[in-house]
Amino acid sequence: MAGNNGGAYAEVNGLGMYYEVHGAGEPLVLLHGGVGAIEMFGEVLPLLAEGRRVVAVDLQAHGRTADVGRPLTYGQMADDVAALIWHLGLERADVMGYSLGGGVALQAAIRHPGAVRKLVVVSTPFKRDGWFPEVLAGMGQMGPEAAEPMKQTPMYGLYSRIAPRPGDWPVLLTKLGELLREDYDWSEEVAAMGTPAMIVVGDADSVRAAHAVEFFGLLGGGLADAGWDGSGRPDSRLAILPATTHHDIFFSPALAHAVAPFLDAPMPETGGGSR
């Protein structure tokens, strides 16, 4: 396995998945957003690695992980993450994902509950209409025709430097566009999920704050007073970070400071949300 700060490839489900290991302690798998890579977390990654062993991943077709001949789907990428956890010889790991990576993390907890100890979902809805309408409209424009204009963005700058095949840029945008246009509603699966979870959004996020509260409610949170001694507090948590948007939350130190206490807390005796 890769050493501290080391990068390596794991063969999982026919995919050569790139990952890096930072720090030591309880394992935390960290998943980036769409058209991103490990590097997008900036200062957040070393802050998280101060107290745990962070396994940062480049998802299919992103970063240093080359694409393979299959669509991009939340379920398949979740299966890849679970396979990586087992490949590394871990019984289970905490999983934290942002945006696209948050959807993958959520599906990993739903599909492979034995592999996920705690879950952190950042700026991610549990159903498609959790995004603001103008954001959904933008997602509808994602596709091969966006490849050339998006070459002016920092995201392409990073991709062109680290991707095994930089010419696959239009392929990534095509597959990502197809995924982002698909409707989904995982409310039943979320409500049945037993994994302790933390929902994080910015107060000026692309995900509606009311949706984040609804998400928290599905996990058993915000449904009743916790009592003077906190005994009725749910196992899951909600954080709305002030003065934070969808486009800066993933590298804000406030994100690491918000989630670290949740990750460090003892596992609840019930192993799930209060419902």
From TrEMBL:
<dbReference type="Pfam" id="PF00561">
    <property type="entry name" value="Abhydrolase_1"/>
</dbReference>
<dbReference type="GO" id="GO:0017171">
    <property type="term" value="F:serine hydrolase activity"/>
</dbReference>
<feature type="domain" description="AB hydrolase-1">
    <location>
        <begin position="27"/>
        <end position="129"/>
    </location>
</feature>
<dbReference type="InterPro" id="IPR029058">
    <property type="entry name" value="AB_hydrolase_fold"/>
</dbReference>
<dbReference type="InterPro" id="IPR000073">
    <property type="entry name" value="AB_hydrolase_1"/>
</dbReference>
<protein>
    <recommendedName>
        <fullName>AB hydrolase-1 domain-containing protein</fullName>
    </recommendedName>
</protein>
